Amino acid sequence: MKYAWASGALLAAALSGCGGGIPAAPNRPVTLQFDARVGEEPFECGRSYDGIGTTASRITPSDFRLYISEVALIDAAGQAVNLTLGQDGRWQYRDVALLDFENGTGPCRNGNPGLHDRIEGHIPPGVYRGLQFTLGVPPALNHADPTLAPSPLNLTAMFWSWQAGYKFVKIDMATSGQAQGGSTPTHQRAAGFPVHLGSSECVSPSATAAPAACHRPNRVTVRFDTFDPDTQHVIIDLAALLRDTNIDINTPGSAPGCMAGPDDADCRRLMPAFGLAFQDQAAGGQRFFRPGKAR
Predict the structure, then answer these.
(1) Could you list the residue range(s) of the whole structural domain that residue 112 is in?
(2) pLDDT at position 9, please?
(3) Could you say which residues form the signal peptide (predicted)?
């Protein structure tokens, strides 16, 4: 369904042509709502969910955060028109937004208080019919010094190193076969089967130097040719992401879960689910995001 935000601009143009001198209509505010779910169930950090992955495992998530950037609406001609994000000093900076579905309590105590499930901005008047965005942090911001970065790029939990950059997605969870890691008063070990997506094979002199390039940038462009933000939400489905993966085992000698390494066998089915090619698996279509009706 197309939705029109053009009437004011068309009226202004018509009157201006007749000498009316009325200025063009102002930009239109846009709010994009994101719903984190596990299948059809709403996501709650610390709640357990059954029937996940190839072993129908039980998962108990302890973190769920991701960066979205380069948000645009698709106009009637099929062109992407960039959304100008509101600069709120916490969740949105330049063209990057952090979506945060953990609440910093219970199993999620290593996170932060506060939730954020929407992206807000404005766009020129026009007729728009779809949505496009990127999962990930743009290259110009991905390899900067996080100690000098403004929020939401100043979270150490979402950063690997200057060489690799940010974790575009951070999902931590205990599973039936991979229990929660132990802890000390100052350190929490990796839990169960984490899924951390970011750039890999980044070439630089050291882990503390920005790279000239990353062989696998691992950014994903998501596009819905039909999407109405007034009536639809973007569903982020953890069950769909994990559908073809055995989350109850970890390949011996590899990092816990999937850390986006090019040789990590535990990423073999996960990366295509993000819409990324991996080893002998073609990218195909991503299934982490889908449009859905507002609850």
Answers:
(1) 38-67+84-118+133-180+190-218+233-293
(2) 38
(3) 1-24
